[in-house]
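Key result, reporting period 2: structure in, sequence out.
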């Protein structure tokens, strides 16, 4: 959930002209370039084709909601496309784009000027939302363009959003005002491009936590990285550089970059990595010890920011580790003490990038500077006392109130080129820093020496407090009184489960949320904080986003995003026919698989869910699935649907065999794979046949996969409901069943990991074979030596004794029972034996 929506103005730290193209550009799934208000398609200056809104995006019979207009004049340097025409909105208006699931760049293009005789942008205030999430609030484009760095007559607002099938972009004029936009761009980006961390898959926390989106770079001209496939802009860092001591390194002729799997060629344009800024002073490098290479980036206060730094050594003189080492400071905190580009990347001309996270508070006003500094590190006795930086991206994270910041404040007229001056306090600080430049260098050295002594202690402390620090910044802390106000005194119950009750509510900004009030919480407050911290670090289109928490004595609650369509179990009840078609079910199954694969492999700490079932899969307005309730099993007492014997977690019917008995193997992330297979079979109706009572001698026939295998062998598919199932849908369903049968193999080592599950579901049916028929037999693979043979024989006897009872657990008959207590009274012996089975 960390990176649900990210916003950015482009800036960058690099100094290059456009170089050789990247060797492997990203091929975006979706590319929309809409020239709003235009009457015909047209190409921009880079050759890209912008299309009209046509009748689907803007129905022709809704002129009362909006109208097209043309600018009365065009400033020098402002291109005709997409800034000549605009769409003007009289009232709330929504664009609906049909997109593929995943992350997208959403770009809004604005040229504030006068359009016709009916509209002037300087009096236009409006809000923009995407799928209900506020991106801009009471926004004025004219105020924004006057304060741009670097100066420009137009600008692009860039966001990173997730979408499933439909992306809804809504413009809402403020009272007595109109809204407008010149262009809309939507471009797919690689999955987890800004969420997995840098090339080392890490996000390093600086003081508190992550981020607005900007890029800086070329001091000569704007770089449009069309060659990478993502159409970003990278600007000069000149307007953000503090001081005049730094030096620009021009493009080194003939440089060929060596991209790697960790840093693909689409991460940034060649220009970013072929040039960089250094501290200079080549003839007297010790002068570099007297100052820091510093940038000041104005950002909105009260947000977390991700700072992505790009590095690449291209000079022939620096060709090995321990030659140029420097310290990275962000917000006056040490982000990395010893930065050795070649030492980390593995060699010269190998691009790399690192991600850092920092929280920017409001102690310095609503629009403070995010300070980035580099200083030579001398303790390792490097060859050069210098520092370098190739590129910067800064991304702002959504908080509980959204991502919209305030409009900038002007202190001078538009005719003044310096319309937004530094505050008096900052001017004093700047003068002071210049006056004591040499003293600052001396202090820096002392600080570094002191930090070396405290280094080990601080590292240990950081490891202990890492999750707590991450948690405190990522999530908003609500008081219990605020939770009551959000939920209107818990008046609207939308769900109940083994972990607590879920209530509907609204935040102050009107956003709907779901509030889960935990019951029977175990552990101390630190356990709660650490577990929620782990949960808060997730960010994926198929994972429910956490927005806040309440921890007040024994009262603990978690605030989630609200999902309009509730849980999946409402759509797959065995008491009524399926209401979702096969294609939709396939999309849900694939989304859940991707969510679990993310929890298992992409999080900083691997997360095993332990309770995958339809009730814990939530669906948004587009039926995009989101896994919920991960991590809560560690925080709550096991009760109701949670089997409470011997610390076993899960819901009967979805629990893997090894969770009941170690005879089948150890508990691991493969337990989620088993539950996922059961979930998909349940979705397809493959578990809804009535189970016939059998005796112990032929109990195997009651194990529900038996009849599925019979259908597969006979070429039948009786698990799909409905008479209008096409051949294509039959093939999709067959593929889902084959993958699921592989997931429910009793032996964990026989199940595929979730990344392989995703590949199989996305792949072709022809590449899949019918998995071995599952049985509840214990594998000899777990008998490691002869001394264990007696245990194995005893286990076999126990297995024969309990097999009929185990089969009842994994059969369809009791799949919807929420607890052992709901097993019929004539199964009393079953209950007793089950307790013995758990305790073996």
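The corresponding designed sequence is given below.
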């Amino acid at each position: 959930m960390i990176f649900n929506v990210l916003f950015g103005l482009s800036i960058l730290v690099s100094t290059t002209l456009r170089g050789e193209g990247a060797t492997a550009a990203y091929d975006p799934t979706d590319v929309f370039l809409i020239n709003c208000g235009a009457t015909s398609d047209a190409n921009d200056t880079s050759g890209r084709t912008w299309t009209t809104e046509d009748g689907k995006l803007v129905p022709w019979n809704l002129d009362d909601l909006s109208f097209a207009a043309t600018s009365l004049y065009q400033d020098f340097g402002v291109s005709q496309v997409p800034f000549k025409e605009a769409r003007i909105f009289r009232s709330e208006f929504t664009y609906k784009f049909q997109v593929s699931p995943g992350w997208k760049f959403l770009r809004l293009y604005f040229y504030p000027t006068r359009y016709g005789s009916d509209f002037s942008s300087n009096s236009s205030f409006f809000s923009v939302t995407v799928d209900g999430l506020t991106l801009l609030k009471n926004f004025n484009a004219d105020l924004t363009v006057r304060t741009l760095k670097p100066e420009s007559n137009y600008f692009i607002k860039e966001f990173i959003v997730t979408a499933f099938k439909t992306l809804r972009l809504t413009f809402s004029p403020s009272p007595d005002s109109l809204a407008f936009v010149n262009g809309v761009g939507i471009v797919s980006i690689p999955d987890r491009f800004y969420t997995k961390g840098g090339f080392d898959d890490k996000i390093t926390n600086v003081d508190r936590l992550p981020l607005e989106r900007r890029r800086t770079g070329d001091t000569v001209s704007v770089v449009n990285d069309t060659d990478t496939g993502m159409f970003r802009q990278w600007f000069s860092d000149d307007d953000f550089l503090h001081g005049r001591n730094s030096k620009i390194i021009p493009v080194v002729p003939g440089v060929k970059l060596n991209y790697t799997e960790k840093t693909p060629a689409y991460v940034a344009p060649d220009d970013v990595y072929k040039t960089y800024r250094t501290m200079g002073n080549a003839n007297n490098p010790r002068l570099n010890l007297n100052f820091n290479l510093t940038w000041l980036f104005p950002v909105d206060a009260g947000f977390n920011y991700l700072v992505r730094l790009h590095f690449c050594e291209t000079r022939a003189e620096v060709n090995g580790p321990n030659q140029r080492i420097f310290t990275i400071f962000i917000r006056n905190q040490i982000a990395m003490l010893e930065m050795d580009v070649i030492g980390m990347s593995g060699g010269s001309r190998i691009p790399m990038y690192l991600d850092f996270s920092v929280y920017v508070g409001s102690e310095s006003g609503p629009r403070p500077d995010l300070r980035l500094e580099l200083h030579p590190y001398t303790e390792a006795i490097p060859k050069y006392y210098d520092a370098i930086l190739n590129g910067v991206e800064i991304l702002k994270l959504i908080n509980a109130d959204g991502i919209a910041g305030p409009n900038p404040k002007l202190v001078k007229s538009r005719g003044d080129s310096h319309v937004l001056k530094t505050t008096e306090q900052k001017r004093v600080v700047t003068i002071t820093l210049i006056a004591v430049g040499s003293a600052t260098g001396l202090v820096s050295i002392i600080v570094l020496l002191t930090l070396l002594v405290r280094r080990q202690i601080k590292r240990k402390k950081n490891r202990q407090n890492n999750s707590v620090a991450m948690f405190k910044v990522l999530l908003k802390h609500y008081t219990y009184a605020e939770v009551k106000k959000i939920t209107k005194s818990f008046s609207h119950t939308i769900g109940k489960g083994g972990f607590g009750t879920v209530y509907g509510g609204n935040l102050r900004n009107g956003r709907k949320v779901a509030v889960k009030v935990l019951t029977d919480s175990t552990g101390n407050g630190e356990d709660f904080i650490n577990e929620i911290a782990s949960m808060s670090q997730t960010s994926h289109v198929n994972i429910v986003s956490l927005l806040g928490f309440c921890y007040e004595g024994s009262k603990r609650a978690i605030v989630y995003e609200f999902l309009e369509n509730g849980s999946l179990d409402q759509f797959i009840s065995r008491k009524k026919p399926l209401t979702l078609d096969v294609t939709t079910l396939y999309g849900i199954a694939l989304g859940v698989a991707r969510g679990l694969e993310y929890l298992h492999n992409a999080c900083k700490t691997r997360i095993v869910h332990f309770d995958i079932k339809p009730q814990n899969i939530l669906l948004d307005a587009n039926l995009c699935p989101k896994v919920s309730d991960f991590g809560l099993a560690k925080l709550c007492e096991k009760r109701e649907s949670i089997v409470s014997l011997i610390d076993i977690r899960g819901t009967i019917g979805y629990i893997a065999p090894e969770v009941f008995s170690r005879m089948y193997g150890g508990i691991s992330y493969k337990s989620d794979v088993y539950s996922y297979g059961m979930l998909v079979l349940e979705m397809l109706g493959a578990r809804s046949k009535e189970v016939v009572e059998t005796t112990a001698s032929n109990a195997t026939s009651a194990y529900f996969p038996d009849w599925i295998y019979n259908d597969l062998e006979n070429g039948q598919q009786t698990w799909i409901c409905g008479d209008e199932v096409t051949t294509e849908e039959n093939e999709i369903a067959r593929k889902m069943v084959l993958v699921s049968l592989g997931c429910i193999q009793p032996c964990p080592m026989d199940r595929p990991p979730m990344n392989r599950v995703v590949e199989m579901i996305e792949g072709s049916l022809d590449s899949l074979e019918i998995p071995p028929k599952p049985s509840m037999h214990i594998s000899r693979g777990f008998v490691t030596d002869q001394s264990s043979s007696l245990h194995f024989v005893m286990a076999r006897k126990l297995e024969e004794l309990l097999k009929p009872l185990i089969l009842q657990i994994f059969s369809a008959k009791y799949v919807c029972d929420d607890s052992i207590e709901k097993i019929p009274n004539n199964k009393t012996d079953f209950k007793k034996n089950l307790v013995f089975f758990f305790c073996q």
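The two ends are 40 Å apart (CA to CA). The longest strand covers residues 102-110. This case is discussed further under Risks and Mitigation.
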